[in-house]
Amino acid sequence: MIPKRVFWFAAGAAAGAFGIKRVESELEARRDQLTPANLAKGAAGMLVGVAADAPGRVTGLVKERRAQRGDEGSGPKEPWAPRDWSSDGGHRVARPPR
């Protein structure tokens, strides 16, 4: 009975020691990755990638929206009704005192 307990105690202690070493090495690697310089490099790389892709995405979205509207691009079109700016549109306009 005692040899079984000693065996399992030793096995648990060895597994614990191995786990601690593994965690220490993982934390060391993460610490090196999370330095301010490395974070800045990663953010800059992502920003450059997004900025390089932006013109194509915007052009694609514009073409898609025009296709949805049925606009062939024959000229500038107003997507809104022209507004009559000569009147106040039935709203009271506050005027400064004279």
Automatic annotation (TrEMBL):
Residues 62-75 have a biased composition (Basic and acidic residues). Residues 61-98 are annotated as: Disordered. This is Secreted protein.
